[in-house]
């Protein structure tokens, strides 16, 4: 029988686990409110299902608000909350990091792919 580990008191802290499209959607909402179809069009390849899932997660976590209008056809607008604007700062930092380290990441991928995904073997001799 396995014994459960005791979790530290602050273990219930918010954990943001962004999906592939999370930061894309957040950055698209940077300057303006967008409708669902506008987000789909400008996002560059996200499926309708994935966009719906991502927006729901962002709304659930308080990063995005959804405003529905009783029109025909129905209109739904999405915009960042104050919390979402703070997440946008992280997205911008990630973009800067990715741009600064692009060459290193591409080189690492090339080495990995060339090796067939096998790790380099390192022999460490202890004294």
UniProtKB/TrEMBL annotation:
InterPro entries: HTH_HxlR, WH-like_DNA-bd_sf, WH_DNA-bd_sf. Signal peptide: none annotated. The keyword Cell membrane does not apply. This is Helix-turn-helix transcriptional regulator. Keywords: DNA-binding, Transcription, Transcription regulation. GO terms for molecular function: DNA binding. It holds the Pfam family HxlR. The keyword Transcription regulation applies. Coiled coil: none annotated. Residues 7-106 form the HTH hxlR-type domain.
